[in-house]
């Protein structure tokens, strides 16, 4: 039925309502972030102005200069990168081995292993916090990024295994059979035949795992005392006194750690949706 | 790789079948993952269970002493209850976490469904909205907590000062939970919407054409066709979101501080006991309780809704 022709009044009313909804949704999704961006460019004293005056008040990059000059923030960026990259590289390596075995091989106990891996991914991190703490201190890596690389494996490994397994299953078997017939070992097959095909999946999974590590807070807060990662630095960003929260620099620091993620997410948009649905909807 | 011919004929294992050889290879391939999981999840979980029945301090865990279930429930001769299950703050944390989970997951599902249905339609600016949808999801939780803490600020926050005229929302425990729910809903509605959208796009369009021909209204189509067909995708998304919400920590800890977070989230309570108060035994007992609560909820979900994970 064509509403446009049969009753134009109703049609335009519906269209207007629809666009109003679209605008409301966009506003809801983006406004808090936009407001943080505006604040990050504002002088501390102007925060007290009413919103309209605040918006037109003088803008400055002072907060960003301060944030980048802050040694704690610089170290935070470094440790966040080390912890996240380390955990992601290890998980992709382990995860692709496991995914190849789970997606391609038939053997007893496969279902059990799949369920164990799934169970670990719904694990509350708090359930292992004490145990990991004593383990990390016993191994002498407390306050060392190795502690974070190690502890992040608890969520990156199950995630990469699960998502990569569903990708491996979708790869046509002929590719790998040809390699096997030529006498390639499983590792050769994996690295030389499957890896090139899996590249998009590896990038997507790695990116999603990276985002999770970059955002991780509980372990970073607990296993590091002075070598903090970026989320911990941002949560603890303090001003001259306890009652003086430096919101300008906090927002600037928040924007700095968020923008690279947003850019990555926007660039890899399509892959991310497929990665998320492979990881979550299928199981 | 493509042009190279095999130079040596392979040795054929005759004694065991190719199946057995493949099974052995699979085990080798799985070994790094299994070791990693055992070390990072299995062993620490076992330690947590072990310490939950010990009186132990975080600074000297080797001096642990077996006390049975006293960490959970123990009344001294003077009638003072020192098990964590006797602590009203724990029960407050449980209540708040449950409220947080039920309300935020419900709202996320409803909003996520609305956003997904809108983005699934055709209109100018659809690509933009689809992109905008990813923004809250991409923002680290700590950052969104700080962004909202700033907006809730009672002296110059847009919400705290502007909308509520200087009410300190986060200082009032009864209202704080709703403020925290709003943050979580904002942050994760897009995740829900993405998953629902993926489900919507897998629905066959000719079915809707047929329904249109038969004169079914959009409303009927939604309730009779879309919703039932989306059920599997929706349920898995619900399970994952609920479990995430039950173990929530960052939002409370950043916005309320360690002490108030302890009466607002179960994880916050556990961390305060375990790390800040160094009570390894009691903290582990709390962690075991959280673990059990979450496992029970998983089992209920899986059996009640027959969720299939594969």
UniProtKB/TrEMBL annotation, chain A:
One of its GO terms (cellular component) is plasma membrane. SUPFAM superfamilies: MetI-like (SSF161098). Keywords: Cell membrane, Membrane, Transmembrane, Transmembrane helix, Transport. Its main location: membrane. The chain crosses the membrane at residues 12-38, 77-100, 112-136, 148-168, 189-211, 247-268. The keyword Repressor does not apply. One of its GO terms (biological process) is transmembrane transport. Residues 77-268 form the ABC transmembrane type-1 domain. It is a multi-pass membrane protein. It is found in: Cell membrane. Belongs to the binding-protein-dependent transport system permease family. PANTHER family: INNER MEMBRANE ABC TRANSPORTER PERMEASE PROTEIN YCJP, MALTOSE TRANSPORT SYSTEM PERMEASE-RELATED. This is Sugar ABC transporter permease. The lineage of its organism: Bacteria, Thermotogati, Deinococcota, Deinococci, Deinococcales.
UniProtKB/TrEMBL annotation, chain B:
Residues 94-303 form the ABC transmembrane type-1 domain. It holds the Pfam family BPD_transp_1. InterPro entries: MetI-like, MetI-like_sf. The chain crosses the membrane at residues 26-46, 98-119, 131-151, 176-200, 252-272, 279-304. The keyword Heme does not apply. CDD domains: TM_PBP2. Keywords: Cell membrane, Membrane, Transmembrane, Transmembrane helix, Transport. It is a multi-pass membrane protein. The keyword Transport applies. One of its GO terms (biological process) is transmembrane transport. Belongs to the binding-protein-dependent transport system permease family. This is ABC transporter permease. It comes from Deinococcus koreensis. The lineage of its organism: Bacteria, Thermotogati, Deinococcota, Deinococci, Deinococcales.
């Amino acid at each position: 039925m064509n509403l446009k022709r049969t009753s134009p009044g109703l049609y335009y009313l519906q269209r207007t309502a629809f666009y109003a909804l679209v605008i409301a949704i966009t506003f809801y999704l983006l406004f808090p972030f936009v407001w943080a961006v505006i604040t990050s460019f504002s002088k501390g004293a102007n925060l007290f102005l009413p919103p309209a005056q605040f918006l037109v008040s003088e803008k400055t990059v002072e907060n960003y200069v301060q944030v980048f000059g802050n040694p704690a923030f610089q170290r935070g960026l470094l440790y966040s990168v080390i912890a996240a990259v380390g955990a992601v590289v290890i998980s992709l390596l382990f995860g692709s081995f496991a995914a190849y075995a789970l997606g391609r091989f038939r053997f007893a106990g496969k279902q059990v292993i799949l369920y164990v891996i799934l169970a670990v991914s719904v694990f509350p991190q708090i359930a292992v916090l004490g145990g990991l703490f004593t383990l990390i201190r016993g191994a002498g890596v407390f306050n060392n990024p190795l502690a974070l690389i190690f502890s992040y494996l608890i969520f990156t490994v199950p995630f990469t295994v699960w998502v990569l397994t569903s990708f491996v299953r979708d790869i046509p078997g002929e590719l790998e059979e040809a390699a096997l017939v030529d006498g390639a070992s499983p590792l050769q097959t994996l690295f030389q035949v499957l890896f090139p095909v899996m590249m998009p999946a590896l990038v997507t999974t790695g990116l999603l795992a990276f985002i999770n590590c970059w955002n991780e807070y509980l372990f970073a807060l607990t296993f590091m005392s002075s070598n903090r990662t970026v989320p911990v630095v941002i949560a603890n960003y303090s001003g001259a006194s306890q009652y003086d929260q430096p919101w300008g620099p906090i927002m600037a620091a928040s924007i700095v750690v968020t923008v690279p993620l947003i850019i990555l997410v926007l660039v890899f948009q399509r892959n991310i949706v497929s990665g998320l649905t492979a990881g979550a909807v299928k199981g | 790789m493509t042009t190279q011919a095999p130079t040596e004929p392979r040795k054929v294992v005759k004694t065991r079948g190719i199946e057995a050889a493949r099974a052995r290879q699979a085990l080798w391939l799985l070994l790094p993952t299994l070791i990693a999981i055992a070390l990072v999840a299995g062993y620490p979980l076992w330690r947590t269970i072990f310490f939950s029945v010990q009186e132990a301090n975080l600074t000297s865990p080797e001096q642990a002493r077996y006390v049975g279930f006293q960490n959970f429930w123990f009344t001294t001769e003077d009638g003072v209850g020192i098990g964590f299950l006797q602590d009203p703050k724990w029960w407050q944390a449980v209540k708040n976490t449950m409220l947080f989970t039920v309300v935020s997951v419900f709202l996320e599902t409803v909003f996520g469904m609305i956003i997904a249905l809108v983005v699934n339609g055709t209109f100018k600016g659809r690509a933009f909205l689809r992109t905008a949808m990813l923004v809250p999801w991409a923002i680290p939780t700590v950052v969104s907590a700080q962004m909202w803490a700033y907006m809730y600020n009672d002296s110059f926050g847009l919400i705290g000062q502007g909308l509520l005229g200087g009410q300190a929302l986060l200082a009032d425990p009864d209202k704080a939970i709703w403020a925290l729910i709003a943050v979580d809903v904002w942050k994760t509605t897009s995740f829900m919407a993405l998953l629902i959208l993926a489900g919507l796009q897998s629905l066959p369009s000719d079915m809707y054409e047929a329904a249109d021909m038969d004169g079914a209204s959009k409303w009927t189509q939604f309730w009779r066709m879309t919703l039932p067909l989306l059920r599997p995708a929706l349920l898995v998304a619900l399970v994952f979101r609920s479990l995430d919400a039950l173990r929530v920590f960052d939002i409370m800890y950043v916005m309320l501080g360690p002490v108030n977070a302890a009466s607002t989230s179960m994880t916050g309570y556990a961390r305060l006991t375990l790390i800040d108060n160094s009570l390894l035994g009691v903290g582990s007992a709390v962690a075991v309780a959280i673990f059990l609560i979450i496992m029970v909820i998983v089992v209920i979900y899986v059996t009640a809704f027959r969720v299939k994970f594969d």
